[in-house]
Structure formats: structure tokens, C-alpha cells
Specification:
mainly alpha; 0% strand; 351 residues; 17 helices
């Protein structure tokens, strides 16, 4: 468990450093730490519940032609596997590329928050440890979507849609997030809705519609139960509820307020939906995880009192420390993440 606590402690200790670093230096250090996290994600050995599945996908790349890559689902992920295989690489190259995308999204998103180190800390227990080290394809899609959320915060709808479509090439479910752009738009709602709806249809045609029957059968009719699905949905719901209650007291632009109001509503809608299908809702809720980074890195803004601001920040740190402790010690599938092993430090062949 120690490596995971080291990852958690890096942003926790870094929160003490801003007063000693100039703003530009903080950005450099943040990107450096992002690189360290990407290495931890990419060079892990037999960590994550789907390790064997992803290894099988990589080995299957040996028998695929370039055109075969685009005939299955999630062509972006399989293209990365195919390129790495043909360049003489291994599964760790694939994981490192995907880890770099995740961290690019997390760091870029965190830099837009008033307390970027706190945003990174909030990401560690679940987004980085569980998702990035367990669900490689969807984590990569989430990384691209976070880049899109930064663009959407800048009122750049086009780049939001582009980033989400790129993410959908790694996990088709990301297409479901495109309509968020229409909900959050502040301009001509009809024109924006038409344009975003058109892009959603295009993305659905390319990535989702041919699989919708199988997805419905596997995730809803089969009534699969995602272990801890309700807990993870509730993790998004806590900051969503706080945002809906306190957003007027946060320092937000009108675009940010609209965007995160709708995302918060979607988080709360997931609570009853998780009863219908915990696995399907759990997977969609993964794309709503950024609400945790956004809200908890801004929650201190609800007061001007320095003491209570510090207490709120300390409370967030303790809360996510507790989340990581509970998950590592009591989660049903935590054994797939334990112990953390770095490929350089295990006596195993590189494949």
C-alpha cells in the first residue's frame, strides 16, 4: 500500500510549497509531478482488475492489419496497441501513453482551479489509482474529456466536441458527454443545440450505434452489479450537492456556473439510475468525476475567514485520505491493485 500513499502525499506536501514557489515554478513542478504519476500508471506490473484482458488485447495486435484496427470497437486504443507492437514495444508502452493522456487532462484541468495541488490530491484515490490503473481505455477517454472541459470553460465548444470524439475512439461511451456542451452553452441555444446534436449523432454513428444493443443487453438487461457502484455515484453526488447549494458564494464565471450546474444535476440524476443498472450508471458516472476536483478545490471560497478556509482545505485532505484508506483496505476488488509493483523492480519478463 505504501506506493499509493506516497502518490497521495506528493500533492498533500506540495500544498505547503506555493508560498515558496513563484507561479511559473508551480506550473513546472505540477507538470513534473504529472510525469511521475504517468510513470506510476504506465510502468505498473499486474495492477488492476483488467490487467489480463488488456494484455490479451495487446498480444492480439500481432494478428491485425492496419485496416483491422478500425473495424472493431474503440479504434483509438487498438491503434495505439498496433503501433506499439509494430514498433517493437510492449504493454508498458501502451499503458504509459494512456497514462500520459490521463495526467495531461488532470494537470491541465487542475491548473485552472484556484488550488491546483488540492485538485490533484482529490484525483488520486479514485481517478488515478482505481480508474487510471484499472480501466485503461475509459481512463484515457476521461483524460481527453478533461481537456475538453477546459476548452468548454473557455467557451470553446468546438474543441470540447473534438476532444470528446477523440476520447470516444478509446471508449465509445464518451460520446454520451457531448450534449453537455449544449446544456452549458450561453449563446444562441438553438444553434448550439443543433450543432452539438449533429456532432453527437456523428459520434454515435461512428462509435456507439452499432453496439447499442449489446451494451443494453450487457449492462441493463443482464442486471450486472458493479461492486461499489452506488458508493462511487454518491462520491460525485456529495460535491454536486454542495455546488448546487453554495455555487453563488464561489468565484465563478457565468460559463463555469452553467457548466457545473448541469454536471451537478447529472450527478444527482445518477443516484436513482444506479438502481436500474449499477454497472452502466457507474461507467457513465466516471466521466462526472471532474466535479470532485472542481468543487473541492473551490470549496474554501465560500468564506473570507482565513481560519475556516484552512479548515475546509484540511477537511478535504482528510476526507480523501479516508477514501483511499477505506478503498485499499475494504474494497471488494482492492486485491487486484495490491501490492503495487513497478516493472523495473520485479523479476518478470517484459512482455
Amino acid at each position: 500500500m505504501l506506493p499509493y500513499w506516497i502518490l497521495f502525499s506528493i500533492p498533500a506536501f506540495a500544498m505547503l510549497a506555493p508560498s515558496m514557489l513563484r507561479p511559473q515554478s508551480q506550473r513546472v513542478v505540477l507538470w513534473f509531478v504529472g510525469g511521475v504519476f504517468a510513470l506510476a500508471i504506465g510502468l505498473r506490473f499486474q495492477v488492476g482488475g483488467d490487467w489480463g484482458t488488456y494484455l490479451h488485447h495487446f498480444n492480439k495486435s500481432a494478428f491485425l492489419s492496419f485496416l483491422d484496427v478500425f473495424q472493431g470497437g474503440d479504434p483509438g486504443y487498438y491503434l495505439v496497441n498496433w503501433l506499439v507492437w509494430n514498433l517493437g514495444g510492449n504493454i508498458y508502452w501502451v499503458n504509459l501513453i494512456c497514462g500520459a493522456v490521463v495526467m495531461a487532462g488532470v494537470i491541465r484541468f487542475s491548473l485552472r482551479q484556484p488550488l491546483p495541488w488540492l485538485a490533484v490530491l482529490v484525483a488520486v484515490p479514485y481517478l488515478l489509482v482505481v480508474v487510471a490503473m484499472g480501466y485503461t481505455r475509459q481512463a484515457t477517454a476521461l483524460g481527453f474529456m478533461m481537456l475538453g472541459l477546459v476548452a468548454l470553460g473557455d467557451k470553446n465548444l468546438r474543441w470540447f466536441v473534438i476532444w470528446v470524439l477523440v476520447g470516444a475512439a478509446f471508449h465509445k461511451s464518451a460520446v454520451l458527454m457531448i450534449p453537455v456542451a449544449a446544456l452549458a452553452s450561453g449563446g444562441n441555444r438553438w444553434w448550439t443545440g443543433f450543432w452539438v446534436g449533429l456532432m453527437a449523432l456523428l459520434g454515435g454513428y461512428l462509435f456507439l450505434f452499432d453496439s447499442v444493443d449489446a451494451l443494453w443487453e450487457n449492462y441493463v438487461e443482464a442486471d450486472y452489479q458493479s461492486a461499489g457502484g452506488l458508493i462511487r455515484v454518491l462520491m460525485n453526488s456529495v460535491p454536486a450537492f454542495l455546488f448546487l447549494l453554495l455555487n453563488k458564494r464561489m468565484q465563478l464565471t457565468s460559463a463555469e456556473q452553467r457548466l457545473w450546474w448541469w454536471i451537478s444535476v447529472l450527478c444527482l440524476v445518477c443516484i436513482p439510475l444506479v438502481v436500474l443498472s449499477s454497472t452502466a450508471t457507474d461507467r457513465v458516472a466516471l466521466y462526472l468525476i471532474p466535479v470532485q476536483l472542481f468543487v473541492f478545490s473551490r470549496l474554501h471560497q465560500i468564506t473570507d475567514d482565513a481560519f475556516w478556509r484552512s479548515m475546509i482545505v484540511l477537511g478535504v485532505v482528510c476526507y480523501y485520505g479516508l477514501v483511499q484508506f477505506v478503498w485499499l483496505n475494504y474494497a471488494v476488488h482492492a486485491n487486484y491493485w495490491l501490492p503495487y509493483q513497478l516493472i523495473w523492480l520485479v523479476d518478470q519478463p517484459i512482455y
